Amino acid sequence: MKLTISLPFILITTLISVPALGNSYSAMEGIEGQRYSDLEKYKANCPACMSVVQNIIDIRYRACAQSVTVDDVIIRDPLYGYLNSMKFMLNNDLYNQVLSIVINEKDCIDSLNWLERANLKIESLVNKPI
Prior knowledge:
Layout: H1 6-17, H2 36-45, H3 47-64, H4 70-76, H5 78-89, H6 92-104, H7 111-126
């Protein structure tokens, strides 16, 4: 399975679109016209997305002793957009291998560095000749 084109695109769009973790999303603030109710609808209508969110919450807690909320992960965590894309492109076995790589490449201080380092290893995993 060749994902050479998609992985760099996913990484670049993830790095550009996600701010650093900070205060949680409130009903008063919106992101580019989105409202809190939109976020709630998103969470209710995408169970697969929520499983990725839970994976990230677990990874951040186990690897870095960080507690983050569901909203923080969806809105601010660079790992979310990347792993969510992986979840929809890969079978379960490969996705679980991706999660292992993410855990092993942890950088609890710099999420973007964490993602870049993990991406290098993930690219070689998913682009292996069959």
